[in-house]
Design goal:
single chain, 485 residues, alpha/beta, 7-stranded mixed sheet, 6-stranded parallel sheet, 30% helix
């Protein structure tokens, strides 16, 4: 069949990623070979692929929805922000450069070749490719050389469905306004629109759907109600990162300092799903809560810069007090590196070359190295021999006396991580530990609570099935399929 359809948005975080995931599962259930595709993504929440690269976490979830392994070709250009004005550029799974935002505009025409190559590979193996745009379709200031939205749609003659988010307000203006500001030839690529995240009586917005259709000439393809179970699925953007919300008395508190370049924060999702755990996101300007049983330092895209922020917030003082009270600390990847005596970046991989003191809670030292390790990881934790699964995505090597007490033993015989002499502080380079039910249960036992026993991965599958049913009930999927070409 070899059809493609592109889902673009009136803005960021309007629900494009989850709509593509739900549609991927819905069309897969119909017996179609579906592949997700995002030409260009910007995210520090990445996933490792079996072919040894990295892509945006959303595309990995969409691949799971389509019941296929993730591939670097599902997200051929991944931008990983390192500052307010610059990002690492990952092409077909491998980092190729670090560029400033202004300079990146000159890169885009060169990257279109990789985008089209990956798209061609997916169309060769699929009945339907569901393409996700990036940001807003109305960013006409970035239209020249575009590879993420209308530039891609026009280059491949892929029809577009435009999504607006009614929950944030102004959805009529955002959809009609998009038609007003984009090039008429770009507007002609848009075949229809979807209004997402509606709350209340849908009949009250019937006139709104009609008005949008009249003003734009685009077909109304669906009014999708808010889907609460989406909270069980990994969020791609840090904007979607939320704590557990109010929990009953007696829950265990896990405190997570939120740093500017937090990465791979889906490590938190399995803990947030546990009814006996309250995940508290510690925002700038607030202290680490004294009642925390565990302080978890997640990954970072710019570890030394984030360590500077950690100190500027006074969280280093809070953390030392937490350990003196007998509280536990776990550092994941960049968080692990921060916990050591020193952190060196002699090659200037994350910025200007420098060496800084670490938080000093683990007797180890880290040196940043140019080589990046991207691999799945399985094994057992030490000394309790509990199984885990996860993945490695890091630069740098960490050594020192506390590394002689590793946290994990991998299936290939290597050991990973470090544990302090008193056992309260630990770090590891492995992401995804808490997604393994047995490993999560072991950690919760250490914290003085019990896991609910619900399978995390099974819960993700159930949420994807529910999302597919939800979208199929409120979107004209038959028409979407007819529009694809």
């Amino acid at each position: 069949m070899k059809r493609a359809l592109m889902i673009q948005g009136t803005g960021s975080d309007v629900g494009k990623s989850l709509l593509v995931a739900g549609l991927a599962r819905a069309f897969t259930e119909r017996g179609l070979r579906v592949r997700p595709f995002k030409p260009q993504n910007m995210s520090n929440n990445a996933a490792v692929t079996p072919d040894g690269g990295e892509i945006g976490r959303a595309q990995a979830l969409q691949a799971r929805a389509a019941r296929v392994p993730p591939s670097v070709h599902m997200n051929p250009v991944l931008l990983k922000p390192q500052s307010e004005v610059g990002s690492q550029v990952v092409v077909q799974g491998r980092m190729v450069a670090t560029v400033k935002a202004r300079d990146y505009q000159a890169w885009k025409p060169r990257l279109m070749h990789a985008v089209l190559d990956s798209f061609s590979r997916l169309t060769d193996e699929a009945d339907l490719v569901l393409v996700e745009g990036a940001g807003s379709a109305s960013e006409v200031n970035l239209r020249a050389g575009d590879i993420a939205n209308m530039g891609f749609a026009r280059a491949t003659d892929t029809p577009v469905v435009l999504v607006g988010d009614i929950d944030r307000g102004g959805v009529i203006a955002s959809l009609v306004g998009t038609k007003a500001v984009i090039d008429p030839e770009d507007a002609a690529m848009i075949a229809g629109f979807i209004v997402n995240r509606f709350r209340g009586d849908p009949s009250l917005f019937a006139d709104g759907m009609r008005l949008i259709a009249e003003r734009t000439g685009w077909a109304p393809l669906g009014l999708v109600p808010h889907f609460p179970e989406a909270a069980r699925l990994p969020a791609e953007d840090v904007l979607g990162l939320a704590g557990s919300g109010p929990r009953p008395a007696g829950t265990v508190t896990v405190a997570v300092p939120v740093l500017p370049r937090i990465a791979n924060f889906d490590d938190l999702d399995p803990l947030r799903a546990e009814p006996g755990v309250s995940v508290v996101l510690v925002r700038p300007g607030t202290p680490i809560p004294a009642e925390a049983a565990l302080v978890l330092l997640p990954g970072s895209k710019t570890t030394i810069d984030d360590l500077d922020v950690f100190r500027a917030e006074g969280w280093d003082i809070d953390l030392r007090a937490h350990v003196r009270r007998g509280g536990r600390v776990l550092g994941l990847c960049g968080g692990f590196q921060m916990l050591g005596r020193s952190l060196a970046d002699p090659h200037g991989i994350e910025g200007a070359p420098r060496t800084v003191p670490g938080l000093g809670l683990l007797d180890v030292e880290t040196v940043m190295t140019p080589d990046k390790r991207l691999a799945a990881a399985t094994g057992t934790s030490l000394p309790d021999a509990v199984l885990f699964t996860g993945y490695e995505m890091h630069i740098g090597a960490t050594h020192g006396p506390d590394a002689a007490r590793p946290l994990l033993r991998l299936a290939d015989g290597r050991v990973d991580g470090a544990v302090s002499a008193d056992g309260l502080v630990a770090g590891t380079y492995v992401h995804g530990l808490f997604a393994h039910d047995a490993q999560r249960a072991a950690w919760l036992t250490r914290l003085g609570t019990v896991s609910a026993g619900a399978g995390y991965e099974a819960g993700v599958e159930a949420a994807l099935d529910g999302l597919a049913r939800h979208i199929a009930a409120h979107v004209d999927c038959d028409r979407l399929l007819a529009l694809a070409r």
